[in-house]
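Slide 14.
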Amino acid sequence: MTPTPQDKPARLTVGVIGAGRVGPALAAALALSGHRPVAVSAVSDASRRRAEELLPGVPVMDPAAVLAHADLVLLTVPDDVLPALVEGLAATGAVRPGQLLAHTSGRYGAGVLDPATRAGALPLALHPAMTFTGTPVDVQRLAGCSFGVTAPDELRLAAEALVVEMGGEPEWVAEEARPLYHAALAIGSNHLITLVAQAEELLHKAGVQAPERMLGPLLGAALDNALRSGDAALTGPVARGDAGTVRAHLEQLRIHAPAAVPGYVAMARATADRALANGLLKAELAEDLLGVLADGGR
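Slide 15: predicted structure.
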């Protein structure tokens, strides 16, 4: 839904606490919509350089000073740091009534901001479902990016409007569903990188000179097919019930990459379960296949 003009927040001064890869990019995107970044908190040399690149001229301040200068403060710190940061800022009286506080953690909803909410802050959880590079390209890549949004009902329109102004698409996630939502993204994104890296390493060992060139079209097509067709896109020896091929895979993995065996077995079992449930894998072939997986191909 595109917010109407009366739903859009007024032009805001914006502060960032935590100049990692995410915060400066979001603030830069808000600047393109007319909001004004005024302060950023950055500790390491790398974070200071990143802030200067994406938010040139915006002064670096301590977190309390960022809160003092900004109408909207983006809390873009690691998940495990966020609760203590919020408690500390609230305890020191740095939070101002009516101030918008938006964190970008996928794990947490608006509840983690309760200490600040009790001090009068307006809590928002705005999680961009995107990997960030920490460079200006991230600002352009926000176009069409989905955000997991959680906020009190009275702030829903404001939260969605801010996401739209950053170029994103708001997707409402209930408070209690945030951990499950984040787990889904971790499986789809973080684990995918591990799988691709493992595939590249194995292709190198098999003598392939350019694994990335070989994998690009294959994985691109697989991802497109999976997004379009779900489980119906399953192919390969597990979905076909080719126990002999799976046994050969495991034999070679035990020789050349034993650390990859548990992951292969776990994913093959999950694939077999999904293929069986969707009628792609015949029950009579599944027995031999699952037997191979049970003994690791021995």
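Speaker note: The domain at 5-173 is CATH 3.40.50.720 (Rossmann fold).
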